[in-house]
Design a protein that fits this description.
Elements lengths: L1 E6 L2 H9 L2 E8 L2 E8 L2 E7 L4 H13 L5 E10 L9 E9 L22 E2 L2 H13 L5 E8 L7 H11 L1 E5 L2 H11 L3 E9 L5 H26 L1
Parallel strand pairs: 1-4, 1-5, 5-10, 6-8, 8-9
Antiparallel strand pairs: 2-3, 3-4, 5-9, 6-7, 6-10
The structure holds adenine (ADE).
GO molecular function: adenosylhomocysteine nucleosidase activity; methylthioadenosine nucleosidase activity
EC number: 3.2.2.9
Keywords: Amino-acid biosynthesis, Glycosidase, Hydrolase, Methionine biosynthesis
């Protein structure tokens, strides 16, 4: 089994990389693929860069060239709603691209036109194991539900209220749905695990800078516990 692990930014992957027994390192499409053993498993870990295109290219390379049988996307995200705070962890059940808009043709916001699914579902087993890991780490508050992704850093109450109303989303970020989309097209199981760095409202960019380290610590802790169970 080869597990592909994608983070958008180097800060999100660096903690994990310190635990990795590196066997090979190759740069492709401006991304460095770290192949080796992580917590007893065969893993390819990579920083994709920010946004949906980078993440999609990265996921496809993991699938086509590294034959990844599962993909996990980890990193930070904006929390949506009153009860979700920096440091909390979200396990996605499914994901939607909030900036996909062909509503003029009668599609719902987020629908990829002419595709036979609206949301990109995470793998039931990977979600179950991730939530089992969350349960074990009782000091980290965890949620599961829909994450929305788009090529926008969200810092607006109006926008997150729209995400809640339109998509029933609990979190937003910039890559997960495109990774889940690529996995859907290739029939490869995936899960997205994100830790909250900000509440995607007015002060989001300041909270984001401040809480990235806490977020990365928490998502890496959950990921380690999860990978030990796979
Ligand atoms: N990742 C972390 N916080 C985010 C936000 N507010 N919007 C988009 N992506 C994020």
């Amino acid at each position: 089994m080869t597990l592909g692990i994608i983070s958008a930014m180097s800060e999100e992957l660096e903690l994990l990389l310190t635990d990795m027994k590196l066997e090979n390192k190759i740069t492709k499409a401006n991304m460095t693929f770290h192949q080796g053993k992580l917590w007893g498993k065969d893993v390819v870990a990579v920083v994709s860069g920010i946004g949906k295109v980078n993440a999609a290219v990265c996921a496809q390379i993991l699938i086509s060239e590294y034959k990844a049988d599962s993909i996990i996307n980890v990193g930070v995200a904006g929390g949506i709603g009153k009860n979700i705070y920096p440091g909390d962890v979200v396990v996605a059940t499914d994901l939607v691209q909030h900036d996909m808009d062909t509503t003029v043709f009668g599609d719902a916001y987020g629908q990829v036109p002419r595709l036979d699914t609206f949301a990109f579902k995470c793998d039931d087993n990977l979600v179950r194991v991730a939530l089992e890991a969350c349960k074990e780490i009782s000091e980290i508050n965890t949620f599961s539900g829909r994450i929305v992704s788009g090529d926008q850093f969200i810092s607006s109450l109006e926008k997150i209220q729209w995400f809640e109303k339109e998509f029933k989303a609990i979190s937003c970020e910039m890559e997960g749905a495109s990774i889940a989309h690529v996995c859907y097209l290739n029939d490869v199981p995936c899960v997205v695990i994100r830790s909250i760095s900000d509440n995607a409202n007015n002060g989001a960019h300041m909270d984001y800078e401040k809480f990235i380290p806490l977020g990365v610590r928490n998502s890496t802790t959950i990921l380690k516990t999860m990978i030990n169970k796979l």
